[in-house]
Every structure is written in structure tokens, then in C-alpha cells.
Design brief:
By secondary structure, the chain is of the alpha/beta class. The strands form 6 sheets. It has a 33-stranded mixed sheet that branches.
Length: 665
């Protein structure tokens, strides 16, 4: 806090009043005060070093309506700048080397100090994924999931990684200081030892045991709360997050809107937007957006996850090694584990896969998305594509945007919520090809197939091909219809002009950078710009990720065009109204077929067996009535109603496009 012209030396009469109030100082000439300072507001205070004091003329009113006068009581302050209308009461040891801004309240704390020069958690090395440090990420105040993804997983682009790390070092150095800050309107109550921690405005700390070497990046629009029993060392916590209830944190980055609570324990881990950790344990994990674990018996270790929900007792092993714990796991977006699941690392699990049971072989399902991976008699059984017809998958996709807890206007992570995208549809193309090849290369009468240490039955294989085709048809039809929205076309030439891609960006493979879906070519171009020096700071890099995210829908059509040409066997610039009608009819059938599958899957939640445990002291009618009072009736269920409405809307939309195309014929 810079001293302003309205600060002056303390006067002799003011010094006398302070002494009468039990205050002391080894050199009163080093105490400066703001005009209007009232010495009666300081009692039993020991001052040392350079001290600056504001005015104390406004009380603090707590949540219960109790009014507490501003001022300093029972404290020792060394080299501190104190803003106006601050309350500092009952400091057991001292506060040293801190700038405390206006309207801060600090009560009943032990020691709050800055020792030496600190970067306040910036530049801390987090050994994520690989416990030996081979994929270490240096954290900083606004680390995004996408930047961390590149640092951790793009080690083949070593120059780009080194350059990003240098940017983080530069940022950390520029934010280093021998003075800590407690931002305006912050509250620190009943806490123990706080060392080398930066608190941004509106931080709320209550009952923390130890906070050491970190930053609490709170904001007025989205405060941070750190609650009772928490021990945190070498950390950064971003806006809107809550860490409470005896949670233990060491060498962790906690992104925006996260909740870590109920004795959760995490070390050397990264948590990005809207993650939730309760009861369990994390070690060297990369928790991409919406990674959630609720259960005490659940361990997440040495893996990357996103949009993931871990069942109770979920566990992974990276200990099948002789040269150190180097094995890692990749669970792509949307994957889930059921209770008591186990995976042996190294393994890679494809998007939106449900893991059931214990799997003791290394496996790769990355090209077979939306699958079930089931254990049966110590065998790993893969059911490809079956999750496409799960109403739970659709419910998850609908709930994620609703459960975005971030209120800060600046969003660090760029999150794409789309269930179907060039990223997942490309994998469906690969999955369809893999399954077709397995079938074509098998002997007549074969009823099961082996793929990457997993068994696939013939019926599952054939069903998987159908489901992937349905998903492909739905996505491509969606893209085509969106392109033709609100277009009054009269000829095939006008149609072809409208369908022509506006740009070349978007072709080829797409990747998921922990929530941000983008063309691989553009990600490679970003890395080239980093290596060439065109991107020279972490702030500029963050803006580049925002640009990639904002370009998604512009670039998606380019990729969809390529895929439409592949599926239809005809160039986009030769596509006619008749071809469009064929594609839309396929789309309409796919949408309705999938919705009907979802409808039937939802119905299972309302079967007689699902009513077991209801109507505890009655017969069948009481059971049914009790069930309906608790769960509602099937047809009135919000998800079921949404499916029915979706069928109506998409049917009408398909018919409208077809009728519009018929006018061109």
C-alpha cells in the first residue's frame, strides 16, 4: 500500500493517548497516521518497525447484526500498513510485514507474517500425473486447465514447455515481495499460523490451522472461503472456491468454483473449474473441470480426469513398476467409475465410458467412446457405444452448465460442454472402423472378439456399430441444419454457396485440452507461436486459449463438411437439395431413435423393481403411491418430459428443412 500525502507523523499528544491505552513502540518516529486518526481506537498494541495507520470511524456489523467498532486491540504489529476502518483484535503472537487494506477484520489469530521474499505460491512445482516429477507443472495465479495440459502432456514439444515455464517464472518474480497483502473487506477469524500468504479482496478465512506459502485469489464478485481445521501449504486458490472442514492441501492449485471439504486430502494435484473433493484422497492428479469425488474410500492417483464422477471405493494403481512410480492413467472427459472399481495404470479410457468392477490388465479404449467397461469373472468386457443410449449421460451433459459455480466475470478455464463434437465424433468414426475390422477379419461363427486386453461379444460389436453410426448421423445432421437456419435458398447453386466453409481452420484431428475442444492444427500453431516468441507472457497465452474457445462454432462446420463428404461420398460444392433431404432424413431418424432409447432407459427407473423399499408398511398400492410421492410419475418427470418435447421439436425442425429443400427441387 503506497503512502499518500495525507499521511503524517504521529503527534506527541496522540502518542501520549496511545501510551495511556497500554500501547508501546520502540521508535514512535516511524509511525505515520492518516489525518483524522483517533488514538483512542488502539489499545494494548505493541508497534515496531515502519507502521502506517488509517482512520477508525466506521464499525463492522457481522451477520448477526452485532456492531464492532473499528480499531486495534491486544496485538503486536511489525512493519505493517493498516488501512482505514480495520479491526484487529486479539493476536496471540504478531502480524509482521503485511499491507492490510481498508475494512479488513482480523480477530483471534496466532501469527500472520511474511518472512523474506515470497512469491505467495506462484512458481510452486506440482508433480502431477508422474510422482517422480517428469510432468511437473509450475502454478501461478491464473493457471488454466489448458495451459497445464500442455505443460504436463506435451513434453514432446519441449521448447514450448520450457518457454511457458519461463513465462511462469517471470510472472512469479514480478509478483514476489517481502510484504504480504490482505485485501480490502477480507475477514480472518480464529486462525492459527499464516505465513507468506497473499489474500485478495473479500477473502474469508475462519478457523484455519495453518496457511503457508500461497495465494487466496478472492474477488468481490466471487469470494473465497477457507474454513475450520484446514491446513494448506504451497497453494493457490482461485475465486469462488471453498476449502473447509479439516481439508489437507500440499502443493496444489485449486481453480475457480471448486469445493474441497469433509477431511479431503490432496497433494501435488491440480483442480480446475467446478471440481469437488469430499472425504477421499488425491495424489498427483490432474483434475480437469467438473471432476468430482464424494467418498471417503476413494483414491484418485496419477491420472488425468475431467467431467468425471468417482464412485465409492474407486482406486487406481501406479505401483506395478521397478524404476519408480512412473505409470499414469488417462480418463477422457465424461468417464465415470462405479463403486469398488479398480484400474491398473497405465491405461487410457475413452470419453464418456462407465467403469464397473476391477480391471487388472493395461487397456486402451480411447477410440471406443460412450462404452461400458465391465468386469466379469476377472475378464474385462467392453460394450461399445452403449452409453449413448443412457439417460444418465444426457442428464450429466445437461447438468454441467447449470452447475457452473463461477461468478467471477473472468473465467480462467474455457469449458466446452458439447456432448457431440468433432472430438467425440472423430472417435466414433474410429470406433466404427475398429469394430467393422474386427468383424471382417474374424472367422465365420465367431461370437466374441479380443481388443486391447478386453473382450467384446458379437452382439455388443454389432450394436456398437449401429450406435456409432446413429451418433455420427445426429452430429452431422445437426451441423448441416444449423448451417441452413434462416436461409431462403432458391437454387442448388445458392445452397452450395451457403454450405461452402468460410475458412480452412477446423480440418483434421481435434483435441480436448482439459475442457477446451479445438483443432489440433491450431493447437500446434499456438505452440509454434510460443516457441517463436510471438506469445511472450502467461497473460497473452491465456488470451490465446480464449480465442481458440470462441472460434469453436466457426471452425466446427469446416470439420463437419469434411465428414459429410466422407459419409455422403460427394463433395460439398456438389451437394444438392435432394442430398440434403437424404441427410436430414437420416438425422431425423437418428435423433428420434436415440431419444426413444433414452425414453426407455428412463422408464427403467420407474419399474416395479425400482419401487423396492417403498411403501414400508403397506401393500402394492401403498408402494406405488409412496414411490410417486417421492419420485413422481414417469410421464411428469422433467427428464422424460424434456425427451418427449425434444422429439417433437426435432421432428418439426427436420420437416421444415425438408419442405424448404423441396422448393429447390
Amino acid at each position: 500500500m503506497k503512502l499518500k500525502a495525507d499521511f503524517r507523523n504521529i503527534t506527541v499528544p496522540e502518542t501520549a493517548i496511545l501510551k495511556c491505552n497500554g500501547c508501546s513502540c520502540d521508535d514512535w518516529s516511524r509511525v505515520r497516521v492518516k489525518e483524522g486518526f483517533d488514538p483512542s481506537c488502539c489499545r494494548n498494541v505493541i508497534f515496531s518497525g515502519d507502521i502506517t495507520l488509517g482512520v477508525f470511524n466506521k464499525p463492522f456489523i457481522d451477520e448477526s447484526g452485532v456492531s464492532i467498532p473499528s480499531g486495534i486491540l491486544n496485538a503486536r504489529l511489525h512493519n505493517c500498513t493498516i488501512g482505514s476502518n480495520v479491526i484487529i483484535h486479539n493476536i496471540g503472537d504478531y502480524i509482521a510485514n503485511y499491507n492490510i487494506e481498508d475494512e479488513v477484520v482480523i480477530k483471534n489469530c496466532g501469527k500472520i507474517c511474511t518472512e523474506g521474499i515470497s512469491t505467495f505460491g506462484n512458481g510452486t512445482t506440482v508433480n502431477v500425473l508422474n510422482e517422480t516429477g517428469g510432468r511437473a507443472v509450475k502454478i501461478w495465479d491464473r493457471l488454466s486447465a489448458h495451459e497445464a495440459y500442455i505443460i504436463a502432456l506435451y513434453r514432446h514439444r519441449s521448447e514450448a514447455v520450457r518457454t511457458i515455464e519461463k513465462m511462469v517464472d517471470d510472472y512469479s518474480l514480478s509478483h514476489s515481495s517481502e510484504r504480504g497483502t490482505i485485501g480490502q473487506n477480507s475477514r480472518i477469524f480464529n486462525s492459527g499460523n499464516i505465513r507468506n500468504v497473499k489474500f485478495c479482496s473479500f477473502s474469508h478465512i475462519e478457523g484455519a490451522i495453518t496457511l503457508n506459502e500461497g495465494s487466496v485469489n478472492s474477488s468481490e464478485s466471487d469470494p473465497v472461503y477457507i474454513g475450520p481445521g484446514v491446513i494448506m501449504e504451497h497453494f493457490i486458490v482461485c475465486s469462488g472456491s471453498r476449502v473447509t472442514e479439516s481439508t489437507l492441501i500440499d502443493k496444489c492449485f485449486i481453480g475457480q468454483g471448486c469445493v474441497l471439504a469433509k477431511q479431503y486430502s490432496a497433494e501435488n494435484s491440480l483442480f480446475f473449474a467446478n471440481c469437488g473433493g469430499y472425504h477421499g484422497e488425491a495424489c498427483s492428479i490432474f483434475a480437469g473441470p467438473y471432476t468430482v469425488t464424494h467418498h471417503k474410500s476413494t483414491l484418485l492417483i496419477a491420472g488425468i480426469f475431467s467431467f468425471m464422477n468417482a464412485g465409492s471405493g474407486s482406486n487406481q494403481s501406479n505401483h506395478m513398476y521397478k524404476l519408480g512410480p512412473i505409470h499414469q492413467g488417462i480418463m477422457e472427459r465424461g468417464s465415470k467409475t462405479t463403486s469398488d472399481s479398480y484400474l491398473l495404470w497405465p491405461a487410457r479410457i475413452g470419453p464418456y465410458t462407465l467403469i464397473m468392477g476391477r480391471h487388472y490388465k493395461n487397456m486402451d479404449t480411447s477410440s471406443l467412446p460412450f462404452s461400458y467397461l465391465i468386469e466379469s469373472n476377472d475378464e474385462s468386457i467392453l460394450v461399445p457405444g452403449i452409453n449413448l443410449k443412457s439417460v444418465g449421460t444426457i442428464r450429466d451433459a445437461q447438468k454441467w452448465p447449470i452447475r457452473d459455480m463461477r461468478k467471477d466475470p473472468y473465467k480462467i478455464d474455457q469449458v466446452n460442454f458439447n456432448l457431440l463434437s468433432p472430438y467425440t465424433i472423430r472417435k466414433m468414426f474410429e470406433g466404427r472402423e475398429i469394430l467393422q475390422k474386427l468383424k471382417s477379419e474374424s472367422l465365420p461363427g465367431t461370437t466374441s472378439f479380443t481388443y486391447n486386453n478386453m473382450k467384446i461379444t458379437l452382439s455388443s460389436l454389432e450394436r456398437g456399430i449401429e450406435l456409432y453410426q446413429t451418433g455420427i448421423n445426429k452430429f452431422l445432421g445437426n451441423s448441416l441444419i444449423k448451417r441452413l437456419e434462416q436461409c431462403d435458398l432458391r437454387t442448388n447453386e445458392e445452397l452450395q454457396q451457403r454450405l461452402a466453409p468460410d475458412r480452412s481452420h477446423g480440418s483434421g484431428e481435434w483435441v480436448d485440452l482439459a475442457g477446451l475442444i479445438a483443432p489440433k492444427k491450431d493447437v500446434d500453431k499456438l505452440l509454434d507461436d510460443i516457441e517463436s516468441g510471438m506469445i511472450s507472457s502467461v497473460e497473452v497465452l491465456a488470451k490465446s486459449f480464449i480465442g481458440l474457445h470462441n472460434s469453436y462454432y466457426r471452425w466446427e462446420w469446416t470439420w463437419a463438411c469434411e465428414s459429410l463428404e466422407e459419409e455422403a461420398g460427394i463433395s460439398i460444392n456438389k451437394l444438392t437439395a435432394k442430398d440434403v433431404i437424404t441427410i436430414v432424413k437420416k438425422w431425423k431418424k437418428s435423433v428420434i431413435d436415440l431419444d426413444n432409447l433414452l425414453y426407455e432407459d428412463a422408464r427403467k427407473e420407474f419399474t416395479l423393481s425400482s419401487m423396492t423399499g417403498f411403501g414400508i408398511d403397506g401393500g402394492a398400492e401403498v408402494k406405488k403411491l409412496d414411490f410417486e410421492q417421492v419420485r413422481g410419475e414417469f410421464e411428469s418427470n422433467s427428464v422424460v418430459a424434456a425427451i418427449q418435447e425434444h422429439i417433437k421439436q426435432k421432428t418439426a425442425l427436420g420437416d421444415e428443412i425438408i419442405n424448404r429443400m423441396k422448393r429447390i427441387l
